[in-house]
Structure formats: C-alpha cells, structure tokens
C-alpha cells in the first residue's frame, strides 16, 4: 500500500468521534484510491502501541467484522454509548459522517 493512501486512511480514522462509527467503505470513499479491503489491511497493520480508534470501524451491514479483536471492539463501542440491536447491528444514527 502506498504511504500516502495509508496516511489518508489513518487521518480519517483519527477523525471518527467517540460514540460514532463508520464503515470500511465510507473510509475508502474519503481517500484517493482506497478500497474497503485496503482500509481493513491498514487497520490490521497498526502497531500495538497506537492510540487510533480502530474499534469505531464496522462493516457496511453495520456489524462488527469477525476477527480476533471483535469482542474487545464490541465492548469498547458499548463503553462509548454505541448499542447493538438484537441482530448485532449498530443503529444507523451512530454512523459517521
């Protein structure tokens, strides 16, 4: 991945406000040449000591993606006031931007 694209993705990621979520696709649309898969890749490659809110990124179906950190992600979102319906989806009002 080109460093400029990675920087764009991380800049958008840093801008997601607490209590809100966005999707891989929405982040990709805010970049030049990004795709949802490239956004996911950039998040997977974050160093362990980062402070970016990776947990605020969900799938287009408004669910937490299936990955090793999914339980932690759900817990962090709930702690910020993001709630899930009975089907595991985040309310559309929580989507940013």
From TrEMBL:
One GO term (biological process): methylation
Molecular function terms from GO: methyltransferase activity
Name of this protein: Cysteine methyltransferase
Residue ranges of every copy of the Methylated-DNA-[protein]-cysteine S-methyltransferase DNA binding domain listed in the record: 5-81
Keyword ATP-binding carried by entry: no
Tree of life domain: Bacteria
UniProt xrefs under InterPro entries: ATL_DNA_repair (IPR052520), MethylDNA_cys_MeTrfase_DNA-bd (IPR014048), MethylDNA_cys_MeTrfase_DNAb (IPR036217), WH-like_DNA-bd_sf (IPR036388)
Protein's organism: Billgrantia bachuensis
Keywords: DNA damage, Methyltransferase, Transferase
């Amino acid at each position: 991945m080109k460093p400029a694209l990675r920087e764009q993705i991380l800049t958008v990621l840093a801008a997601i406000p607490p209590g809100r979520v966005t999707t891989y696709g929405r982040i990709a649309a805010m970049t030049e040449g990004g795709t949802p898969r490239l956004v996911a890749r950039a998040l997977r490659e974050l160093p362990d000591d980062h402070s970016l809110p990776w947990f605020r990124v969900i799938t287009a179906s408004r669910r937490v993606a299936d990955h090793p950190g999914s339980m932690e992600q759900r817990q962090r979102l709930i702690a910020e006031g993001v709630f899930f319906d009975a089907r595991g989806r985040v309310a559309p009002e929580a989507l940013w931007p």
